[in-house]
Amino acid sequence: MLFHHLLFLSLVSAFCLITLASGAPVLPESEVEALKEIAKRLGKRDWNFSVDPCSKEESWVAVAANPEDILKNVTCNCSFSNGTVCHVVSIILKSESLPGTLPPELTRLSFLQQIDLTRNYLSGGIPPEWSSLPLINITLLGNRLTGTIPKDLAKITTLKSLVLEFNQLSGDLPPELGNLPSIERLLLTSNNFTGELPETFANLTTLKEFRIGDNNFTGQIPNFIQNWTDLTKLFIQGSGLEGPIPSAISALENLTELRISDLNGSDARFPPLSKMTKLKTLILRSCNLIGDIPLDLGKITTLKTLLVYSVFSFPSV
């Protein structure tokens, strides 16, 4: 028995010496154990832990026919400690039919910058514990998530993209989200959100894309959208909000897509859009618009898609 024990230790030592000699960077055991717990929470059963998760072995990486469409990928940064240590910086698991819940254990991957769990069957809420991570992108599109957006997410000062579309999330939007200093994409379409858009959202001057369609918001489209001068895409389709479309929208000169539909409220005139010289898609459907269609709309030479459905009279030339 002693002989076998000594033989085992010798083999382990030899393996470690070979690994060190080869200079191959390794993922710390603490992160390997964290990935095992994360797999349990998600219902992920095919990660091969007999190889290093940073090895790019088949169970850890997969792409679709289009190489740009990454379906599965655990990405590591191995530049730490002169290239001897790796850390997980990104987890992408798209369309894997994962049946579990979102893992609070992500916090044990302290270098994680991206989590993308698009189109699975994940349920439950969003863990507020994620607020301790240096996340740049959170994408949870197309799951079965419930509950509210944790206000703690506003503590992620690195966050640029928060995609929560096509879930069953509800409640008011946390005013704290207005403190996100780097946010560029806030996509909340097709949930059950209620209440007014928080006044603090006036501070989101880095926004480039904002989508809130198919929800149950109340109140009017706020004038503070004029602060979002970097915005390129604005989708407010069937959001529950009331009109009129504020004239302040004219400040959004970088818009390439503007989609607004099904506004509650009284009749209103066509909004001033002539300064939106980059506009490619304009959809204004059931927005209670009356009066003349402005002639200067024809001066937007970039426009490729135009759908305006309301009660109009056509101006005489």
Q: Which secondary structure elements does this structure contain, and how are they paired or packed?
A:
Layout (H helix, E strand, L loop, with lengths): L1 H21 L6 H14 L18 E3 L6 E11 L4 E9 L20 E3 L6 E2 L12 E3 L4 E4 L13 E3 L4 E5 L12 E3 L4 E4 L13 E3 L4 E2 L15 E5 L19 E5 L6 E2 L11 E5 L3 E2 L14 E5 L8
Parallel strand pairs: 3-4, 4-6, 5-7, 6-8, 7-9, 8-10, 9-11, 10-12, 11-13, 12-14, 14-15, 15-17, 16-18, 17-19
Antiparallel strand pairs: 1-2, 2-3
What does this structure look like?
By secondary structure, the chain is an alpha/beta fold. The protein has one domain: Ribonuclease Inhibitor (Leucine-rich repeat, LRR (right-handed beta-alpha superhelix), Alpha-Beta Horseshoe). Helix content is 11%, strand content 25%. It contains two helices and 19 strands. Strands 1-2-3-4-6-8-10-12-14-15-17-19 form a twelve-stranded mixed sheet, with no helix packed on it. The chain has a five-stranded parallel sheet with strand order 5-7-9-11-13, with no helix packed on it. It starts with a helix and ends in an 8-residue tail after the last strand.
